[in-house]
Design brief:
The chain has 316 residues and is of the alpha+beta class. The protein folds into 2 domains: 3-197, Jelly Rolls; 210-315, Homeodomain-like (Arc Repressor Mutant, subunit A). It is built from 13 helices and 12 strands. It is globular and about 65 Å long.
Length: 316
């Protein structure tokens, strides 16, 4: 399995999904603060005009038409005509009725896209809130994708262009198409972030770029049901047991066995929610020798047994 396949599998298992909030038509000297919201990657596509995006701990960045801003980890952010303006909370605008027919209108004239204005498409990507993975901690506080900077990455440039065209078309089925495109772009952006991590010594993307650790991750993801021992994984990495265990933990922030356990339980949630496999089959596929041992481990991690979890998904 190649590295991008592992990354795609991780996002699939984390149950990546996206949705649109609204189109934002902003004008004049506008400044809107979007509140913190856990475990979501917000995105803003600039359809027309321009604006600044500000995230705590980073310098404000100016966005131009066709640019996409991704803000991971549910961080608070401000969209403005000038980063020095005092923002109005989004919740306050919504209470005042600024959102109508799927459009947030705010500012002098509230037309969006004109002089000093911006027309944005805003939405989010979410994950299963009960799952965690080192890849989510790899993402920087703010990712800005500009079509003009992606000449050497035609797949990313094509994705952004298609996103822009579909947003402008606003035809039947457009919301579903936009949601899928956003998910693709988030995965592409995560894969692209590996190039920005060359000087880092830890993180999932760093591990994928490490030939020894990448072999181990490929083995774990390819056969999570195997009775892996640290010595087995060290042999795959061609390292001593102690050297491998230290390198894995230093890079990924968890021990090899903890990573394996987390991955097995994440896979189990997906199988419980998306398949009709028996509990015995799921336990076996996820490396547990019996349903009782699988049930104990699952309940200890998620505060509910696998049977109850499956029923809640069916009832939903």
């Amino acid at each position: 399995m190649e590295q991008p396949d592992i990354l795609s599998e991780v996002f699939s298992t984390l149950r990546l999904s996206s949705a649109l909030y609204f189109r934002a038509a902003l004008a004049g000297r506008f400044a809107v603060e979007v509140p913190e919201e856990a475990r979501r990657i917000r995105f803003h596509l600039v359809r027309h005009g321009s604006c600044w995006v500000s995230v705590p701990g980073t310098a404000p960045v100016r966005l131009a038409p066709g640019d996409v801003a991704l803000i991971p980890n549910g961080a608070r952010q401000t969209l403005s005509a000038d980063p020095d303006l005092t923002p109005v909370p989004l919740a306050e605008l919504m209470v005042a009725g600024a959102v109508s027919d799927g459009v947030l209108r705010y500012g002098d004239g509230a037309g969006g896209g004109g002089a000093g204005g911006a027309d944005l498409l805003c939405g989010f990507c979410a994950f299963d809130e009960h799952l965690d993975h080192p890849v989510l901690r790899d993402l920087p506080a703010l990712i800005v994708l500009r079509p003009g900077d992606l000449g050497a990455e035609p797949w990313m440039a094509a994705g952004l262009r298609l996103l822009q065209l579909e947003a402008d078309l606003a035809g039947p089925g457009g919301t579903a198409i936009l949601s899928r495109l956003i998910e693709v772009i988030v995965i592409q952006a995560s894969r692209r972030a590996a190039d920005a991590l060359r000087d880092r010594t830890h993180g999932f993307l760093v591990a994928l770029a490490d030939p020894a650790l990448a072999k181990v991750l490929t083995a774990i993801h390819g056969a999570p049901e195997r009775d892996w021992r640290v010595v087995d994984l060290a042999r795959i990495a061609a390292l001593s047991r102690a050297g491998f265990a230290r390198r894995f933990a230093d890079t990924l922030g968890v021990t090899p066995i903890d990573y394996l356990t987390d991955w097995r339980l994440a896979k189990a949630r997906g199988l419980l929610a998306d398949t009709r496999l028996s509990m015995d089959d799921i336990a076996e596929r996820c490396g547990y020798r019996s349903v009782p041992s699988f049930t104990r481990r699952f309940k200890a991690r998620f505060d509910e047994g696998p049977g109850r979890f499956r029923r809640s998904r069916l009832d939903g």
